[in-house]
Structures are given as C-alpha cells and as structure tokens.
Amino acid sequence: MKIKQNLGESLYIDEPTSSSSLVASAGQFMAIIITLGLVSMISSILVTESLSGDAERINRAGSMRMQAIRVSRANLIVQDDSRPILSQEIQVFENKLSHLFFGGIASTIDDPEVIAQHQKILSSWDDIKQSPQTTSVEDFDRFTVKIDKLVNLLQMESEKKLSLLRLIQGITLFSILIVSALVLFKLNRSLIIPLKQLVRVASEAGKGNFNIKIDHIADNELGLLSRTIAHMSKQLENTYQEFEDRVDKKTQELTQSNQSLEVLYRAASNLSNYEYHQIDQKIIQELVQVLGYGKVSIVLCEKSINNLTFYKAKTNTIDHQYMDVHQFVLEKRGRFFGDIVWQVPKHETPEDWQKQLLQAMADIVATAIELEQKKNTENRLLIAEERAVIARELHDSLAQSLSFLKVQMSLLTRKMQKGLPEEQVNETINDIKQGLNHAYLQLRELLTTFRLKLDDPSLENALQGTVAEFAEKCQHAIELKFEIPQNYLTANQEIHVLQIIRESLSNVHRHAEASLAGVNLIKEDDKIKLAIWDNGRGLPSNLEQQGHFGLGIMKERAKSLNSVLAFEPNSPNGTKVLLEFIH
After folding, report:
1. Cβ atoms of 303 and 314 closer than 8 Å
2. Known catalysed reaction(s) (predicted)?
3. N or C terminus of the chain with fewer C-beta within 10 Å?
C-alpha cells in the first residue's frame, strides 16, 4: 500500500499478513469457541441418548422385585384352588424379566456387572420356576436381594452417565471461559489499548497538538492504521505550521495596513479640521513611527514660474553617502505642491507597503493643500463679491441720500444768504431732517444685513433661529418648511438665501401688519425653490419708486444666485417673495 506525501515522495506501508490480521485472529477464536460448543453439544446428545430408557429399566427392575415378592407370597398360600394364581404371578414375572432390557441403545447393557447380575437372576429364576413349591422363603429373599442389586447396578450405571455429562459440560464451559479470557486479554492488548491511543492522538491533533507519538507497532490492521495516522499527523503538523506561518505573515501585513490606514485617517481627519502648516510635524512623526526607520520631511514649493519650482529652504541636509532618498510628489490635477522626502539608510530596502503608504500620504497632503488653496480663493472671491454688493448698496442708498443732503444744505445756505422768509428756511431744514432720518434708516438696514454670520454649520438650524427671532419681534407665528438635504447648498448660496429670508421677514415685521407668515425652502429635482409669504396688507403699487424695503440688496443677492427675485400678491391677502435657482 502506498500513501502520497505533499512533497512528492512516497511512503510504503506493507499490508498485514493473513496470520497477523485481526480479522483472521478473530475468526480463529470464533472457530475455537464454536468447535468447543459443538463438541459439548454432540457429547451431551450422545450421553443423553445413552440415558434414554434407563429410568424405564430401573422401574422394570423395581417392579420385578415387587413381583418376586408377590410370587413368594402366592407360593406360601398355595392350595388346590390357588394354583392358577401362582401360575399367573409366575407368568407376569416371566414377562417382566424378558422385557427388562427392551428400549434404549445396545451399549446400555455392555456393563459386565449388570450382565453378570442379570445372568444370576436368570439362573436363580430357572431354579425357582422348575419347582416353586419346594422353594423356601429364604430362597425367595435371596432372589429378591439379587434383583435389588441389579436395580442398584442400573442406578449406578445411570449416575455414571450423568456424571460423564456433567464432566463434559464442565470441561467445555471451563474451556470456553479460558478461551474467552484469552480473547479478552488479546483484544485489550491488540485492539482496545491501541484504539484508545489512536483516539487520543486524533483528539490532540484536532486541538493542534501533533507531538504525541503512537507506540503501537504490529503487523495487522491497527498497525497499518497507526502508521497511516502517524504519517497523516506529520503531514498535518507540516501543513498546520505552514498555515500558522501564513497567518502570522498575513497578520503582520494586516497590522501594517491597519497602522497605515490609521495614520492616513488621522492625517485626513486633522487636515479637514486644521490648516496644513498646523499639523505637518505631527504627520511626519506618525509616518516615521509606522515606517520604523529613516527620516521623513515634507518639502513644499514656494512658487512656480515658467515650470521652474522654488523650494523652501527649511529642509534637512541629506548625506547621500549613507542615505538613499525616495521622493513622493505632492501633485493634484496637474498642480505641483512639493514632495515627501524619505531618507533611508543604504542597508535598508524599502518594502512596497511603505512606498504605498508614503504615496497615499502624499495624495492626502496634496489634496489638503489644494482644498486649502481653493478655500482661500473662494473666501477671497466671496469677500470681493460682498464688497461689491456693499459698494453698490452704499452708492444706491446712502450715497444718494448724502448727495440729496448736500444739495439741501447748499439750498439752505443760499436761502439764508438771501434772507428769505423763515417759512422757506424751515421747509428746507425739515427736508434735511427727513433726509437724515432716511439716511440713518438705510444705514441701519445695511449694518443689519452685513453683520450676519452663519455660525451654525447647518442651514436648517440657522433658519430655525431666524424664524424664532422674527416670530418674537412680530408677535405672531412664522411657519418653516425646510425640505432640502443637509449641506446641499454651498456656503455662498447659504449666505445669500439666509440674507434674502432675513430681509423679507424684516419687511414683514416693519410693514406687513400680518398675523401669520411663513418660509418655504424645498428642493424639486435640481432646483431650489424659496417662498416667503405673509397675510398682511400687501405691497404698495409704487414699490419700485419708493426705493426701500431692502429690495436692492435682495435683488443683488438673487442675481448672485443666477436668478431673479419675484414679488406676488398672496391669496387672499398679503405678499409672496419668490426665488428659484439651480444648484
């Protein structure tokens, strides 16, 4: 029998011989036990058959003894009229004597003593039968004793056969017990003990312990099984060790990957919350700790002019005699920001995971720098846009009011110089006062508008605060319907929308005289729809000529959203301010 091994070699295990086979041994023991049983059964049958008819013969001999007594009694009282009785008793005895050994097998009368005693009885009976009248009582007693001795001989012969039967059964039982004990002993030594050891080896192998050896060596099936299990255990041990090595290697790789991911995650998280220059040293420390050796530095370019890059001077001096330098470019969308420089001792060989970690970190840092620059650019644009809006509002409102006041002051001066009546002078002074009040109100509106800050990162929370603020000012309920996803709008869009809503609610507070108002901000497909409504007295017909209510600022903000602000009557009364723009 041949068993293949993992490495290609072969292991030969001889088949057990027929003489050493457990099956053959079991067959031999079974044959012995069956043979002993058969011998015992056949012997018992023969002895039992030899006992067949013994009890009947003993009974016949006993009845002969009784009949002899009856013949003796009949002979004592013999008379002329009683002779037929004697003859009849003699005839009965004769029949019993002749049928004494009928039945059974022939070997039952092979005992010499029984035959001799039987002959004596026949001889004595012949003497008594010839002259029964002359036979005395003593002769009949002696004849009866002979018959009694025959009965005893027959009993002894039967008891000998019973003793032989007991002996045969006892010997057979003892032999079977001896053979059974030998079978159990050999079974325990060659089967049970090895099986227990094999079960223990298999159980320990299931727990990963392959160091237990099998001591059973035999040229039988269990020996073959032991050698096979020992070989399999060795193979399993090698395979188990190989898998453990693989698991250790994978665990180490996963640990390194996990550490790399943690470093990358912390770097990305920190870069999303802080500016790059605030955490660059922390990123470098964590990288060095995970990499295990070498020096890491981040070199940013100062500026790029005609594809020539100028670096910052704050970098570590590199000793190329003892260090190898690996550079990982900080680049995003064709824009170059610098490098991550890794100085590695010459006797160290960087692994792929280390290079992948540094390149991933370079991508994250480049993305963070790009986002920071983009944010700064957007902030500058937003500031410039807000300044333009302020400048237009100052020009359209406060500057015009100041120009009007300047004209009125010149008019007042000329009237006073000409000495015009006091009524005309007071008229001009009243115009100046109204102009100052109007300019002051416009200034307050501008200050309220441009002081707004969106402190809460959630537009919904900011709107809830605004609605609560104006509901308290107006002394009536203001409904809010907000149905757009969180962080759906850009920061610039959120500022403009919130400013338009605040200005509209401010107009409701100051001019509408309403008892209910509401703000609806919903998303339909890719459009954002805004509606501010109230049930007040509505807008005047000469809205455009009046030039107040902050309409200019609201329209400028709507224009910044690439949209147009609309004013409509509300049903049954009141006003609607409508705005619709594409996100």
Report:
1. no
2. ATP + protein L-histidine = ADP + protein N-phospho-L-histidine
3. N
